[in-house]
NACHT domain-containing protein
Amino acid sequence: MAELALLGLVANIFQFVETGIKIASSARDVYQCAENFQTREIRLLLEDIKQTGEEVAKLPHGALSDDELAICKYSEECNSIAAELDVLAAKLSKKDGTKSRTLDSMRIAIYNHRKRNEIQELVTRLNRVDGRLRTKLQKVLRQEAGTEDDETWSRVMAAVERVDVKAGILDFTQGHVLEKAAQTLKAQLRTEALVGDLVKMFAEEIRTRQYYQSHMDTLVFQDIKQRYSDIDLAHQVTFKWAFDRKHTEFAHWLESGSGFFWVHGLAGSGKSTLMKYLYEHTSTKALLREWAKGRKLVTASFFFWALGTRMQKSQLGLLQSLLFQLVRADTSLATALFSSRSRNEPWTVAELREAFKTASTLAGDHTKYCFFIDGLDEYEGHETDIISTISDLLHSSNIKICLSSRPWNRFREAYAKCPGLTLEYLTKTDILEYTKFELLSNSSFQRTMEMDPRCNYIITQISDQARGVFLWVFLVIRNLLRDITSQEPFDHLQRRVNELPRTLEDYFQRIFDRIDAIYRQQTARLFLVALHLEEHNEDPLPLMAYTCLEVEVQHPTYAARQRLLARDPKWLECLPENVAEYQRTAMTRLDDRCKDLLQPRRNESFHPASLHHFHISLLHRTVRDFFRDNYYGTLLEKAGEGFSPEGSIANCFLWLFKTFPITLFFYPSLKEREGLSDEVRVQVHKSRQQNDYKMSHALYQFWSHVMKNESSIDDQTIESFFETMVTYCDQDWPLLIVPLGLTGYFTNYPPEILLIPWASYLNLESYLRRNWISDPGRAKDQLDYGTLALRLALEPRGILALPRSAGNATTPLQLAKEHHGSFNQASGSALSPAPIRPSAVRTLLALGCDATDRKLGLAFLERFRQARRWDAKTVLELAQAAGSGERAYLSNRNVFEVTRALFEHGFSIPLAPHAESVLCKANFGVLFRPYFGAEGIAELAGIRRRLQEELSLTRRLTRAFWAAGS
C-alpha cells in the first residue's frame, strides 16, 4: 500500500463504523440516550472520510489495486449510512429549550423502543461494512508485507483478531486497536515479523489496561460525585475576594504555604459552595503550579454529606475517593498499590491509610498533592476520628489540605493556629450583591421600584439581617419573590421583611406553620420519610414515589392493590405521557406541601431517563436538625394514627416495582464518569447497565428494607411484593438475590408455596409468627415446610446487590462473599449482611420446627468451624462486613446462642464421627472450646444432660403406664 491517503481513509472508516455502532447499539439496548458529542463526532468523521476520499481520488490512474479500489467505495456506503444516523441522532438528541430533561429523555427512550428493528438493521449494516473492510484490508496488508504464504499470514491475522476479541471486553477498544494498527502501519509495517511484534504490543497494552481497570473499580462507589454535583455553583457576583491577598491568606497558602488551610463558618453560610468554587477556579491551579515548581501537580476533593449515603459521610468514602483520584492522575502508582491485592477485594480503612503513605513515599520530590475536603462536621463519627485520619494524610511537605467545617470546639482546637478564614466575616458584600442581582433582575420588582424608590431599602435590610448566612437569604428572597410577582407595594414588602424570623430554625418553623392545614398530614409524612431514609443510610426515594404518600392517606393498601403495569403493552405504549404527568404532579404538589424545605435534586449518577435521576432530599442539614431535634413529635402527631415511615417506604417500592419497567430503575449515566479513565468508565458502564443488575438492585433495596423494619410493614405489602417478584422474574428470581448454593431450595418447589420459607430465610420473625402454617395443605406432599424453613434460617445468607460474577471463588474472602453475606459497600457488588439471628431460630423452633434433624445442626456447626479456620485478617474483614455486635454471623456469641437453642429443642451430636460430620460427643468440647469457652461447653453439656434425664424419666413413666394397663 504505497499511498498513505488510503490508510487514512481506512482508519477513518473504522472509526466511523465504531462510532455509528456505538450510537445505534446504545439505542437498541433501550433507554440509552445518545450524547450530543457522539452526534457531532459522526458528522466530523464523515467530513474526514470525504476529505481523504478526495485525496485518494487524486491518485494517478492505475496506482491502486482492485482491493484498494473496493475500499474506496466503502466511503460511499458510509455516506448513505451517515444520513440515516443523522436522522437517528436527531431523534435521540435532547431538544433545546425543553422544559423537562427527564420528559425529553423518556421521549428518546420510547423512540428507541419503537424503532428497535430498524436500529438493529442499521447495526447489521455497519457490522457488514466492518467485516468487508477487514477482509479487504487483510489482503492489502498481506500484499504490502510481501507475504504470500497463506498459512503464515492466517496465523498473523488470527492473532490480530484475538487481540480484537480481547479488546471487546472493553467496548471502547473495539475498532480503536485496528485504528492504532493502521496508524502504526503507515510508518513501520513492512514484514511479517513487524506485524507479530505489533500484535504482542497491543495485547500487552490491553492486559495492562484490564489489570488497572479491575483494581480501580474497587475504589469507585456509585455516589462518588453526587454531593459535588448537588452543590450549586457560586453566584457570579460572589467570592471575588477569595484570591485577594488583602482579604485572605488563601492565595499565599496555595502559592507557598503548607499544612492545612481552614475554612470555617456558621451553618448555611455557604462553605460548600465556596469550597467547590475554590477547587474549580483556574487561579487555584495556577497558584498551586507555582508551589509545585515544575513538579507534577495532583489535586483531589471530597465533600462530606450528612444527608447522603454512608460512603458519603464516612472515612472509607473519603479515603477511597481521594485514592481513586490520585491513581487516576498518576497511573504509575497502580502497580505499587495494587500488586499485593486480589482483584475486587474490598478496601479497609487501615489499608487505605497505608496506601496513602505508599503513594506519598513514591511521589518523593517529583509530585505535589493538594486535597480539598469539605464538611468535616458532616462526618458520621466523632470529630476526633476524622481529625486524626486527615492528619495522617499529611505525611510530608509534598501534601497540603484545604478543609472546611463549622467552628466546633474540636475543630477549633485542631486548626485554629492554621491559616484560614471565617466565612461570615467576608460575605456581607457578597450577600448585598446577590440580593441586588436576584431582586433587580426581576421585572416585577423593577416596576415596583420605579413607582417607589424606597424598595431599594429592602435590599439593604435583607443584607443587614442575614448575618452572613446565605441559606437564610436564599429562603427570604424566594419568599419575597412570591409577593413581588403579585405586584405588592413597598409597604407590604416592608412588613414582610420586618416579620421574617432572624434565625434559620425560626424560619423553618414559620414555613411549616404557614403550610395549608389541608396538607399538614401529607407534609408530615413526607418529612418523616425523608428523615427515616437519612437516619438509616437508605437511598432517597425517587421523585415519582412521593405521589404515593398522598394516595396512601386515602387508600393505605394502594400498592398491594396496584396491578402489574410494568408488563402491560398498552401502559408501556403511553409511558412518556404517564411519566410526564407523574412528574408534573409530583413537582407541583411538593412545592405546595413542603415549600422550599424538601427539594427535588438531580442525581448525576443516573441517566435522565432513570426514575432515580430526580430524588427528593432535605434542603440542608439544618432542616434535618430542626425537624429531628425540635419537631419530630409534632410530625408524628400530624402524620396520623398508625403511620410508619417504614411501611410507607415499602409501599412506595412496591408501587414503583409494579408500575414501571425495570429498565427505568437505577440507570447510571456516563456523564458522572467523564473525568474517569476510559478503562474505569467502560467497566462501570457495562456492569451498571445490565437488566439483571437493575432487577437485583430493586429486589435488594426492598427486601433489605423489609428485613430491617418488618414489624412496621403490612403483611399484604410483603406478600404482594413476593408474588410480583416471582411473576416478574419467572423462575430466575432466586439467581438474582440469593447465594448460588441456596438457589436449589427455591427452584425445586413451586413459588406459590415458598413465601413462609422465604420469610424464614430473611429472618422475618413477626411475619412468621403471624402467618405460620403448621400444615400447609396442598404443599404437604411436596416439601417438609418446617424442615425447609429451619434449614434456610440456619444458612448463611445475603441478598445480592449486583449480579454474581462468573468464575469460582478462589480465596476465603471471595468464598465468604458467596456464602456468608459479606457486603462491600464501596463497590456495591457483593452481598448485604443478613446474619443468622438466634431469635429467628428460636421463633421457628417455638412454632414447631424439628431441631432433632441432625443434618441441619451438624451442617451449621461445620460451616462455622470451617469459617474459623480462615486467616485472622479474613475473619476480621468478614465480621466488619457483616456488621458489628453479637448479630454478626461469625460472632462466637451469635453461633453459641443458635447452638444453645438447638440443644434446648432436642438437637444431639452423634456418638462417633460419620459421613455427615467429623463432630461427635467425644471431640465436641475440644473443637468448640476455643469459640464457646469452657463455660459455654459446660452449659451446652448441662442442657444435654437435662434433656436426657427428662427423656429417660418419660420412658420409665411410659413403660410403667403400659405395664399397669396390661
